[in-house]
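Hey team,

Filing this mostly as a record. A colleague (T.K.) asked me to run one chain through the structure pipeline before their review meeting, and I want the input and output archived in the tracker in case anyone asks later how it was produced. No errors, nothing strange. Just documentation.

Input sequence:
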Amino acid sequence: MIKGRVYSTESFGAVDGPGVRFIAFLQGCHMRCKYCHNRDSWDRKGGEERDVESLMSEIISIKPFLRKGGVTVSGGEPLLQPEFVAEIFRRCHEEGLHTCLDTNGLVMRRTPAIVKAIAESDLILLDLKQADAAKHKELTLTNNRPVLEFAEYLTSINKPVWVRYVVVPGWTDSLEDAEKLADVLLKMTNLERLDLLPYHSMGEWKWEQAGVENPLLGVNPPPAATMNRLKDFFKSKGIPVS
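Output structure:
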């Protein structure tokens, strides 16, 4: 029986893919984003061990509400548990439910299990943190080359993708940042839309709870003028943006 470690679940999500969705947030992440709002999801040994059957029972119990939506697996980073993801999505397809994978794309190797998880995903939500390599390293403590290669792979197999980009004041909100991101997105013929997400501080308390200093403590959400400027820029490039 395939088991995985689950951080939490949400029965009626509305922002992690199309329609009303059941969302499973899996435990464990290899990025260390300064703006992470689920700081307690990093530890791969944390969360609760669940088997696929128990998760599917939870999903099926609200299946009538998911007909025009579906199931999203997020994190943490779900591709650290690819077998679990693939089996959940396989079962969802048996139930006629749309599947969506929310990933940071930091996949070092395309193992058979990861390829299967991607194949079972009807839609990928790809969280691109920063297109600039140096800024990405400082923001997440990881290299963005594997992320960009993952984006190229999704394009090569024509997998539908929504890119999500968090606008963090001082980190990802400049037009220079946007231009580098646009260079990546314009090569993605499989891109369906770009979601610009304003940074928020609602997860600050989790850093405090973990006894770790929040590197963005005191940073406010970006003003509407910044969000509108970036949205207009991407539209001017012909990139579909929400």
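Quick notes for T.K.: The chain has eight helices and eight strands. The mean pLDDT is 93.
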